[in-house]
Amino acid sequence: MALLLLVVALSVITVFPIISEAQSEQKTFLTHSGAVVQTSGEIIDPLYTISTVEFDPDEFLRNFEYGRISISESGQTIRDYTIIAEDDKIQEIAPGVFYNVWTFNGTVPGPTIRATEGDLLRIHFINNGSKEHTMHFHGIHPAGMDGVFEPVGGNGGQFVYEFEAGPVGVHPYHCHIMPLEEHIVHGLYGVFIVDPKEDRQPADEMVMVLNGFDTDFDTENNFYAANTIPFYYQHHPIQINTHELIRVYVVNMVEFDPINNLHLHGNLYKYYPTGTDLIPSFYTDMVTLSQTERGIMEFEYQYPGKYLFHAHKVEFSEKGWIGIFLVRDNPEKNMQEIEYGT
Amino acid sequence: MELSDNSPKGRVIASGIIPFAFVVLLMVYIFGPGADLLDLGVPLPEITIEKVDFVDSEIQVTVRNTGPIPVEVVMADVNDRIQPAAVEPDRFLERYETTLVRIPFEWNKAEPYTVGITIEDGTRFEKEIEAAAPALDLTLDLAIFFAIIGTYVGIIPVMIGLLWLPFIKKISKQKYHFFLALTAGLLLFLAIDSIEEAIDVSNENLAGSFNGTLLVATVLVLSFLGLYYSGEKLVKKADSSKLTKPVAIALMISIGIGLHNFGEGLAIGAAVGLGSIAFSTFLIVGFALHNTTEGIAIAAPMSRGKLMIGKLAAMGMIAGAPAIFGAWVGGFVYSPFTSVIFLAVGAGAIFQVIIILMKWLREEGDKNFSSAPVVSGFAVGMLVMYLTSILV
């Protein structure tokens, strides 16, 4: 009988904590399918948690770095940039998730470097990291400026990359030190835009770097995003106007997964692969991008409202690579004159 | 303590305390000035997903911090797709603390799911569930259902086994020894079975930091020693009280078997809880057949005393009824940790009973274990158990 009592007592001990769970102050959140859920605890969700993460994708989206401009004696435009590499920063890359990012000028992606074809670029590269780093630009330049065989030592090593901007288009730049995958996935990459000498049509321009983070180092990405922060543009829609030309410079920097893609809702875009041609190759709502594959997308919305854009590789969109264009009515139907490329 | 105390007693105490004081100093040093010594290596956080329940439009995940440092639960996913979720009471977990992660999710019955939990450094931990099945609600109907099953598996078969008592009573001493040895064989099998089950449960559900196998070993030995000590007392007392020695031994056997049957009840309750009805049907039939042999184990020692129907029935209850409690616990509040403890306690109890039985057999018999009835009884006991266990 003592045994029975013991068993009963132990059962009660096991059950009790479950029953006694206090139902205190309730919080509410929405599920992906719109159901409302109440909790007495905390909400963990990269989408619905309003969180100030350290990197601001809104600021990055429309930010272009034109450098310190001077004119040479021969009349060539010279653009001087200073880029500093670091590899010790711990950044909150999704609400509550901290990851050691390696950065160009303190952010992932690094600054969007923008020049006109034929400009002379002088990139003053300083490596304040602990490891060797370089800057390797996709494009046309002399072998010695390729950032592969000229490793720049850490703790203050310097190098000046000097070359003429070209060809026209959108290109990535990234560190090219071995092990290469490690240097890229930690965040040492950015976008390099070369504008044609004759301006493209004025537009609301933005940059989207499609990237991912493997936070547990199992060679599979845990998060995906357009511009680093998962679900950011779903929570903070990108505001655009109807009847206004939108131009998106898209660069795919996702590692590990062979492909990425971009699907636009309620519209189609003109697609210029690598941006090297001024005539679009496709009119579509879906392009597939391999590693460092990139291009320019141009579109205009007729109808106001909310439109998704996301990877149609749905795994990626459900891990953060998804966003919303909030299209506002533009009654004047006149495009706001936006100066191109200044 | 005054070390200068010259009385012999003081010296004894001092000599007992001095080494202890050095141990304290050693600890103080390593945590204080010598802390740098230990400042090497990186402590890796670890969590264990102990339990996953499928309730109405929701998956509920019990997470325990089983690593050396505090962690924060920051994200939940289902099949590697990020889901909004709630953590109750909060996302901060000290060592060994648990939290409940509620993931709203329209899951489909019988489909496999992988549930993932990510902590603040981005490490993701996951657990696979072979087939989603609704968690059992604590209803009276279900409680009665489990009670009936527990009775069917535990009490009735043991009682049936007890019916062999008149038969065992009438047989010769040789044959009686055979049955006693058979009982020991049955019990040895049950003990090994319990250990295996305990280690399985701990491997599948407990974090490495619990040292599952050693936990089982420690609990088993403690349970053995505890029962051995109290058992000896009981037997000694039996000499002077109305409790006869056979009754005392039978009582201990019943307790050991009861603990074991609690484990069987757990297995059945958990199987029903997991929705594997076909599996649990096999378990029920298998255990029922298996447990009739346990009745023999109790009947064998009792057969040499007076026939005491009341005591016999009570022992049948002690041995059988825990299956009901086991089924309740397994079905409603399954906790791998408690299960491992119960199974290990049961194994320890059974070993203790085996020792008592062997001792008795030795005293009763010709001071040796190599007689044909004993050896064959033991062997047959193991074999019978093995064969009936195939049914499970």
Coarse structural class of chain B: alpha+beta
Mean pLDDT of chain B: 81
CATH class of chain A: Mainly Beta
Order of helices and strands of chain A: HEEEHEEEEEEEEHEEEHEEEEEEEEHE
Q: Count of helices of chain B?
A: 11
**Residue ranges of chain B: pLDDT <50 for 5 or more in a row?**
none
Q: Write the H/E string of chain B, N to C.
A: HEEEEEEEEEHHHHHHHHHH
Question: What is the mean predicted local confidence, pLDDT of chain A?
Answer: 89
Architecture blueprint of SSEs:
The complex is a heterodimer of chains A (342) and B (392).
Chain A: H1 2-19, E1 27-30, E2 36-39, E3 42-44, H2 57-61, E4 68-71, E5 77-94, E6 97-104, E7 113-116, E8 120-127, E9 136-137, E10 157-164, E11 169-174, H3 180-185, E12 189-195, E13 204-213, E14 223-226, H4 232-235, E15 238-241, E16 246-252, E17 260-264, E18 269-273, E19 282-284, E20 286-289, E21 294-299, E22 305-310, H5 314-317, E23 322-328
Parallel strand pairs in A: 5-8, 7-12, 13-16, 15-23
Antiparallel strand pairs in A: 1-2, 4-5, 5-6, 8-10, 9-11, 11-12, 13-14, 16-21, 17-20, 17-22, 18-19, 18-21, 22-23
Chain B: H1 8-31, E1 47-55, E2 58-65, E3 71-78, E4 81-83, E5 85-88, E6 92-93, E7 98-104, E8 113-119, E9 124-129, H2 140-162, H3 165-170, H4 173-205, H5 212-240, H6 245-273, H7 277-302, H8 309-320, H9 322-332, H10 336-364, H11 372-390
Antiparallel strand pairs in B: 1-2, 2-7, 3-4, 3-6, 3-8, 5-7, 8-9
Helix pairs in contact in B: 2-7, 2-8, 2-9, 4-7, 4-10, 4-11, 5-6, 5-10, 6-7, 6-8, 6-9, 6-10, 7-8, 7-11
